[in-house]
Amino acid sequence: MKPAKGEIFEGKVVDFALPEGQGVLKKNGFVVFVGGVIPGDVCRVKIVKVKNNFALGELLELIEPAEGRVEPICPHFEEGCGGCSLQFLSYPQQLAFKEKSAFDALQRVGKISREEIDYEGFFPSPKVFGYRNKMEFNFGPSQEGKLALGLHPKKRYWEVLDLKVCYLMNHEKIAQLLGFFRDFAVRNQLSGYDPVKKEGFLRNLLIRRSESEAEFIVGLASREGAIPKTEELIRELKSLVPSVQGLVHIINNAPASALIFEKKQLLFGRDFFYERIGSIRYKVSIESFFQVNSPGCYLLYEKVKEYAQLDRRQKVLDLYCGSGGIGLYLADSASSVLGVEENPKAVEDAKHNAWLNGLDNFICVSGRVEKMLSGLSSQKFDCVILDPPRAGLDKKAVKKVVTLGVPLIVYVSCNIGTFARDVLFFREGGYQLKKICFIDLFPHTPHFETVALLLKA
Ligand SMILES: C[S@@+](CC[C@H](N)C(=O)[O-])C[C@H]1O[C@@H](n2cnc3c(N)ncnc32)[C@H](O)[C@@H]1O
Predict the structure, then answer these.
(1) Which of 306, 335, 396, 440 sits in a 20 to 30 Å window from 66, CA-based?
(2) Which residue, 294, 259, 346, is CA-closest to 127?
(3) Is the CB of residue 134 less than 8 Å from the CB of residue 297?
(4) Torsion angle, CA of 429/432/436/442, rounded to 10 degrees?
(5) For 85-108, what is each residue's pLDDT tens digit?
(6) Burial, 50: exposed, middle or buried (Cβ in 10 Å; 0-12, 13-18, 19+)?
(7) Average pLDDT, rounded, for the chain
(8) Residue 138, SS3?
(9) Residue 67 pLDDT
């Protein structure tokens, strides 16, 4: 029986649903989702919304906390920061819930059961805090309408929670940089961008960090216009955080909230950084994709290498290759690697990275995978690496990959839903999902990476 809005009841949390990170309770058999609770918690809940198949509840009181609940280390967690939603769970619990949600998605979307595949496990991140090498903070109005610099609160993209610290990246440096740029904006009476009114000057503070070189580059994004007092800004920034090796002014007039590099101006230093994964050194431009968890990236690339089973004779096609991340990692074990990437800056980096590492058997071409695949059907490849963005491939792109007829595909995905959908299409095209594992590149969030081996039947 459906509960009524406003009804209050006591119950035990029986399940946990990702990606929202909500506990599941049953009220006379009817599912009620509640934020901030975990399985085993006994709590008092108020029903706030009733839908056809489920209701939403609000936690009124935690009567008996479950094991596995931990005290979040970040002071902004309780304020509803949207940066990480799982910090109140112990790390082993986070992994267990992610694993369960991964197999639920594989079953629901891809019709793949755990029993029918060789499952290698859910590998934890080598670093549980301070693991990110990229943070994109927002300038904007706080709830009180003042200038704030931080992240959006959960489900409130139009507001910015003023952050003093963030534990996803080196928290001491982040605290310094957030404080410094907030003070600079306030001192110079610069406004933060309001995504609803579409007005305001400063938009984002982009911080990228090299784990191997322990240095930062910073991007300050605004709408069209000059940053005032740049000489003072540079002098003070260099003195406060000497490991900042470059500052870039990014111009973004686009109405959407995503950070778009319409124009950029180097204010000092350089607009790229170097990162080392295993024996490969990568140059990464401020606007290029790079895996955000460098120690976790090493685990990921090693797993791809293992699944690719190369013995220096194979021709590899690395689709969605970014700055050459995976392709260059494999190049030494292959006869040749051809990378395809749409971002021209990343292609430039990939070519530079091949030169930097003396890997002249890696070639990178610029273009959209969907278009480039038609022109590649006459070439013979032994192995295809797929590492698409969250949207995955789609049926058309999968069909084109299938026509290449390669015996072995390694599919890397940051979205289990689109991955499961694409695996269905690959199955229709005659491929079998042989092996799978998950790697946690994103502790305290619902996200993780999947690495899968598909073989032609
Ligand atoms: C998840 S990243 C993978 C990067 C790389 N494999 C690595 O490990 O660093 C996806 C990459 O695909 C690129 N991309 C997105 N859509 C694309 C498309 N339709 N065609 C080609 N490249 C695309 C993005 O620019 C990004 O660099």
Answers:
(1) 440
(2) 294
(3) no
(4) 10
(5) 899 999 999 999 999 999 999 999
(6) middle
(7) 94
(8) strand
(9) 85
289 lines ligand 1 (CB under 6 A): yes
Fold that domain 8-64 belongs to in CATH = OB fold (Dihydrolipoamide Acetyltransferase, E2P) (2.40.50)
- Is the fold of 8-64 the same as that of 134-276? yes
Q: Is the ipTM of this complex over 0.85?
A: yes
User: What amino acid occupies position 62?
Assistant: L
Structure tokens at 191: 């406004």
Which of 282, 305, 342, 410 is the best mutation target for the ligand 1 pocket, counting ligand atoms within 8 Å of the beta carbon and taking the most? 342
Parse the chain into domains and list their residue ranges: 8-64, 109-125+293-456, 134-276
pLDDT at residue 316 greater than cutoff 80: yes
What is the residue with the minimal CA distance to atom 18 of ligand 1? 368
**387 CA → ligand 1 middle, Å:** 7
Query: Is the beta carbon of 291 within 6 A of some atom in ligand 1?
Result: yes
Does CATH place domain 109-125+293-456 in 3.40.50.150? yes
CB contact set of 17 (below 8 Å; sequence gap of 6+): 23, 24, 33, 101
Mean pLDDT of 381-385: 97
What whole-number distance in Å separates Cα of residue 80 and Cα of residue 367?
40
| Domain over 134-276 is classified CATH 3.40.1000.20 | no
Q: Which helix (H) or strand (E) holds 420?
A: helix 416-428
120-175 pLDDT, tens per residue?
999 999 999 999 999 999 999 877 778 999 999 888 888 899 999 999 999 999 99
The pLDDT tens digits of the residues spanning 392-440 come to 998 999 999 999 999 999 999 999 999 999 999 999 999 999 999 999 9
User: Percent of the chain scored above 90 by pLDDT?
Assistant: 85
For residues 360 and 302, what is the distance between their CA atoms, to the nearest angstrom?
A: 21
